Amino acid sequence: MRNIGIVSYGAHIPRFRIKTEDIANAWGKDPKTIENGLGIIEKTVPSIDQDVATISVEAARAALARCNINPQDIGAIYVGSESHPYAVKPTGTIVGEAIGATPILKVADYEFACKAGTAAMQTCVAMVKAEMIKYGVAIGADTSQAAPGDALEYAASAGGAAFIIGKENVIAMINETCSYTTDTPDFWRREGSKYPAHGGRFTGEPAYFKHIISNAKNLMELVSTKPEDYNYAIFHQPNGKFPLKVSKMLGFTYEQVKQGLLCPYVGNTYSGATMIGLASVLDVAKPGDRIFLTSYGSGAGSDAFDITVTNEIKKLKKENAPLMSDMIKNKEYIDYATYAKYRDLLLLE
Amino acid sequence: MRNSVARFWREIPQRYNFLGNKCGSCGRVYFPPRETCPICRRKSLGKMEKYKLSGKGEILTYTIIHVGPEGFEEQTPYPIAVIKLDEGPCITAQIVDCDIKNVKIGMKVQSTFRKIQQDGRIGAIYYGYKFKPAEVR
Amino acid sequence: MRDVAVIGIGLTKFGELWDKSFRQLITEAGAKAILDSGISGEEIDAMYIGSMSSGRFVGQEHIGALVADASGFSHLHIPSTRVEGACASGGLAVRQGYLSIASGINDIVVVGGIEKMNDVSGTSATGTLATAADQEWESFFGVTFPGLYAMIAQRHMHEYGTTKEQLAQVAVKNHKNGALNPNAQYRREITLEQALKATMVAEPLGLLDCSPVTDGAASIVLCAAEKAKKYTDKPIKIIGSGQGSDTLALHSRRDICTLDATVHAAKMAYKQAKVTPKDIDFAEVHDCFTIAEICAIEDLGFVKKGEGGKAIENNITTLDGQIPVNTSGGLKAKGHPVGATGVAQIVEIVEQLRGEADKRQVKDARIGLAHNVGGSGATAVVHILEGM
Q1: Residue A349 confidence (pLDDT)
Q2: In 3-state terms, what secondary structure has residue A143?
């Protein structure tokens, strides 16, 4: 898979934030206990006029702004999410139209809980390798929903990132990718149901940890690497604690993990989680840096990537779109009542 | 269902991508695109060329809507403005990512892609342009 | 071209009229006007009916035929036409009737205006009124009617220093006049403080800066001037009629604060009447929102552009002022049954010129002007009248 990789990238998170403290107080829970237990201080909240389509468009447009690609050369767009605006009618076509990539374009929407975006990346890599397309856009974005009062409410947030995959002017080569998949019902949302359900502690060891650890070990075996060979490691981040624990279990250090760990201030953007983590790393990465990325999607599966940053990254016009750090700083707090209104928790009909 | 999907679909190039046109005779830019240039009139027939605007402009006037029309009730209060685009044409759009108190005549703005309205819970979703202050990234 | 006179007028009460249907309202107004004129049904050459959106308010189109029928004239097969220009529908119907006589085609024409707005919900009525704006490029994005005029107000305040107090004074003045009008929807005065503290609708316009949702109908009978004295000894001549159009969307206007359609229509009417703004003794202008009255007195030439606010403040347009404006109470206090407004304005002007305006009578009223606008200014129609 030499020379195939990321040509450009872009990300978007909404401006609004709600503090863990305010959610906890709304439900009569102790804020400090929750903050310490989950490792989340605040999360992003989409406004009433934002959804996965608008976030995906912002991210894709940001990616295009940073490079010189003619949108008509984009041959495929895959958007992964578990909160697509329509159950039937793809988000990908809205993005395609909004970035001027239509009509000679392959599009489909993906769903695999939090790893739908990385699955889209694998598809784009394969299509570029098979020379079916010149460039593909893989997007992972969510405006994830959690039942009010549920533990997930502190983490479920909104955001997404877009990666343009190709063979020319690659800023980060995707050396290898592998996946680990089983049928494990740890977290799900039934058709027609507004909120997801989950298996409590079952989502930990047999789900998140088993798949990430197994997959990570498989990837390192495939490319003959050890944790210390990497400059950065990005793991799926459903809360601020799991990624720290799993990285430690695998032998990675906090130093390697911290740049890609956004959950404490952004929350869990589900299909966007590892994707925005990768965007954050690329914001600062230097030529030669090696990146280890392992996503996790409930249901369950994990996608892992071994990435090497190239010299081309110096030519990327990063300043043409906001960095993750810019967007994290650009925030406005809302209270629980406003949050409930925006997140449609109050049934208005 | 309140709106016509066909009518919306026809205007996607304008609402998503600011596709206007330019008079081949005098060079004036129009948004939304026109069949003829009002200045050149018959001289412009058949000479209107596609032209993509940048989506950047400045607030000419605005108001804060407190009583919203059907479908917008949940969004109030929201600012709506007449924006003079850099290329010349003026349009009407909501202002977002800005404290209501800070919306001012003369404020420089740039477009952003947002959900404009939807046809209840089962109808279509209509996307389009809103504007945020130029300095918001 | 021959002269045209108003020989009969009629009006229903304006308000929330639950007991009266669309058909009842228009026939009531028509009957009053016809009786006032002294003509017989057989003498009517044509009817013109103004109604903005009977289809959305009462589900009924084909109004021309309906009104002729409801009036009892179907066996006479009178040509009857519905005229539409948003809130200027009534004024346009007056002009169409006028043109048909001036051109020599008709001798006697009945003009009516009607709107029955309360049978639908408030939200629905608001949505219907918004169809006067640009659906694809204004309404689609969430701007409301008050929103459009509020943007005019913001710009007017920015450019000319017009204040919220001046806007409120328009409402206070019109309510004061409305209190003297037995047919007005609102017959009580309001204070400046009430107007300023009213619920905000679209900044800077509050509830009391906005004309209400109203049911009502009005009617006039027009006659060739050379034949008018046969029917009445107080015929009132239309000495000038003008009309103008402009861009549909507010954002496309040459100047946000000027309704060029008004300027154009007024010029046309002044020219025909061979008068200037200084010759106008009093006027009924289109105050759908307080800011609209301020712009109107500027665009009609009563005061310079930008000085409308000061004029209100200096009481130039009160009932006993230099040029009384909206002695009827205006759209604000009299009410604004959209299609009826333009015709109702003529009714007020005629009452004044006949000396029959009772407590609202303007002293020495000789020449009056009616100004009716559609939407945020895409249509305007002006009529100037004088006692014969």
Answers
A1: 44
A2: strand
Helix, strand, coil % over all residues of chain C, rounded to 5: 45, 20, 35
| CB–CB contact B115 A49 (8 Å) | yes
Q: What is the ipTM of this complex?
A: 0.94
Report the residue of C141, C201, C205, C376 to disrupt the B interface, i.e. the one with the largest count of B CBs within 10 Å. Answer: C141
pTM: 0.93
A124-150 exposure pattern, b = at least 16 Cβ within 10 A, e = fewer: bbbbbbeeebbbbbbbbbbbbbbbbee
Is residue C168 predicted with pLDDT exceeding 60?
yes
Q: How close, in Å, is residue C22 to chain B by CA atoms?
A: 25
Task: Retrieve residue B64's tokens.
Answer: 């804060």
- Residue C301 near residue C266, CB atoms below 8 Å: yes
Percent of chain C residues topping a pLDDT of 70 = 100
For B10: left if phi > 0, alpha if psi spans -120 to 50, otherwise beta; the answer is alpha
Q: Please name which of C43, C178, C181, C56 lies closest in space to residue C121, comparing C-alpha atoms.
A: C56
> One of C156, C264, C336, C371 is an active-site residue; which one?
C336
CATH homologous superfamily of domain C133-209+239-387?
Thiolase/Chalcone synthase (3.40.47.10)
Domains held by chain B: number = 1
- Please give the Cα distance from C185 to A159 (Å, whole number): 53
Residue of A nearest to B123 (CA): A86
B9, part of any domain: no
Place of tokens 């047999």: A206
Give pLDDT, residue C342: 98
Domain span at residue B113 reads 54-137
Question: Which amino acid, residue A256?
Answer: Q
| Alpha carbon of C208: minimum distance to chain B alpha carbons (Å) | 14
Is C336 a catalytic site residue?
A: yes
Using CA atoms, how far residue C372 sits from A287, B18, C6, C253, C303, in Å, is 70, 35, 18, 18, 18
Cβ-based interface (< 8 Å): residues of A facing B: 15, 47-51, 53-54, 57-58, 61, 85-86, 94, 97-98, 100, 321-322, 326-327, 330, 341, 348-349
Mean of per-residue pLDDT scores for chain C: 97
CB atoms within 10 A of CB A85: 19
Q: Which CATH class is domain C4-121+214-236?
A: alpha beta
How many angstroms away from the CA of A322 is the closest CA of chain B? 6
CATH number, domain of B125, equals 2.40.50.840
Q: Quick: pLDDT tens for C148-158.
A: 999 999 999 99
Nearest residue to C287 via CA among C84, C87, C83: C87
Question: Whole-angstrom Cα distance, residue C220 to residue C340?
Answer: 11
Kindly state whether residue B40 falls inside one of the protein's structural domains: no
- Cis-peptide, bond into residue C146, ω within 30° of zero: no
Q: In this structure, what token pair is assigned to residue C53? A: 């959106």
On average, the pLDDT of chain A sits at: 95
Per the domain annotation, does B72 fall within a domain? yes
Q: How far apart are CA A330 and CA C17, in angstroms?
A: 53
Mean pLDDT along residues B32-59: 95
Q: Do B82 and C251 touch (CB under 8 A)?
A: yes
Phi and psi dihedrals of B133, rounded to 5?
-55, 140
Which chains would you list as touching A if contact means 3+ CB atom pairs under 8 Å? B
From the list A84, A85, C131, C290, the residue with the least C-alpha distance to B70 is C131
Rounded CA separation A269/A256 (Å): 21
Domains of chain C, by residue range, sit at 4-121+214-236, 133-209+239-387
B8 belongs to a structural domain: no
